[in-house]
Design a protein that fits this description.
The chain is α/β, with parallel strands linked by helices. It folds into two domains: about 1-110, Rossmann fold (3-Layer(aba) Sandwich), CATH 3.40.50; about 120-260, Rossmann fold (3-Layer(aba) Sandwich), CATH 3.40.50.1820. Helix content is about 35%, strand content about 20%. Helix 4 (about 160-170) links the parallel strand 8 (about 145-150) and strand 9. Helix 5 packs across helix 6 (about 235-245). The longest helix is centred in the middle third of the chain and has 27 residues, at about 195-220. The chain is globular and about 55 Å long.
């Protein structure tokens, strides 16, 4: 038996999950050198390993193998033709391609072990003809704390934050997340080219509409609305949090915007300069680190920074750090 990790290891660490346990791996080998590859490199890498080790059974595992569904649609038929029995362990972050049902010697296992009993609702919101906002709502079957907690994204989104959903569920929250309207990884923005409506879905519409639908689902399931609704996320999720506070303040009773990537254009474009410095010169990384560590803001900038940093607020609810007219 051969286990190949095609994406980085699952962050959930759910008790009882067999994807990385001895009962699943047995005396076989787990190979992790492919988990950063994609496209032809991943397809060829998996097939080369299978031809080298000649296993009867292959398990394809990872943080979420289905984010490589395009590659899997090429790998799985090829493994079947080699006479290999294949297991894909997934949390089903995207719909499992129906054509996989026709592939011989293939089994897909959906693993959500270690979580309390819950109702899982998955749907797609289509506010425009070019929109496909996937979302999920998870609701504990019992011991609901009568609160709703929204889950954000990282990078350019593209997947539902199942780690956040699982953590919230264990704490008794009804919770929901979205891929913000496209399928991809955190560093992939190819979906945005010539798709202005998908940019809107990513920018603000996906989280807002998911919040609205999720509240409706929660009320239908429990027979009453959530007593309080919150949103907690960081990075791009922090940007999403600020966007919710600015455009749709009625969506949540409380919002925690951690490390918000709110100046998105400036933030992403500045990475070009950093990449040129750190990759164009072997010593560039050390130079950049030294320059940052020894940087002292000029007096005018320090005064501006002092005005931007608000003093502690001794109130139950904090005032928004960004004030703008909702649009």
């Amino acid at each position: 038996m051969l286990s190949i990790e095609i994406t980085r290891e699952c962050p959930l660490s759910c008790p009882g999950c067999y994807a990385y346990g001895e009962s699943h791996l047995g005396s076989g080998v787990t190979l992790r050198e492919l988990n950063d590859l994609r496209g032809d490199a991943l397809v060829n890498g998996v097939l080369e390993l299978v031809r080298k080790h000649k296993p009867m059974h292959v398990s394809l595992v990872g943080g979420e193998p289905l984010v490589r569904h395009r590659e899997l649609s090429r790998i799985l038929p090829a493994l079947s033709e080699l006479g290999v029995f294949t297991l894909v362990v997934t949390s089903a972050v995207i719909p499992i391609p129906i054509e996989w049902m026709k592939i011989p010697r293939l089994r897909v296992a959906v693993s959500v072990d270690g979580l309390p009993a819950f109702c899982r609702v998955a749907g797609v919101i289509r506010p425009t003809t070019d929109s496909a906002i996937r979302f999920e709502v998870w609701m504990p079957e019992s011991a609901w704390n009568e609160r709703f907690l929204g889950v954000g994204n990282g990078g350019f989104a593209g997947v539902i934050g199942y780690g956040g959903l699982a953590a919230n569920l264990r704490r008794g929250f009804a919770t929901a997340g979205t891929d913000t309207g496209h399928d991809g990884e955190g560093e992939d923005a190819s979906w945005a080219y010539q798709h202005p409506e998908k940019i809107k879905d990513f920018g603000w519409r996906g989280v807002h509409l998911t919040t609205e639908r999720a509240k409706q689902v929660v009320q239908a399931f429990y027979g009453r609305p959530a007593r309080r609704s919150y949103f907690d996320s960081c990075s791009d999720g922090g940007r999403e949090a600020l966007m919710e506070a600015q455009r749709f303040p009625e969506d949540y009773d409380g919002i925690l915007a951690g490390a918000p990537a709110n100046n998105w254009t400036g933030l992403i474009s500045s990475g070009i300069d950093v990449t040129q410095v750190t990759t164009g010169d072997p010593a560039g990384c050390a130079k950049a680190s030294f320059a940052f560590s020894t940087f002292t803001p000029p007096t005018a900038l320090r005064a501006t920074m002092a005005r931007m940093i608000a003093p502690p607020i001794s109130k139950r609810y904090c005032t928004p750090c960004v004030v703008a007219t909702p649009q």
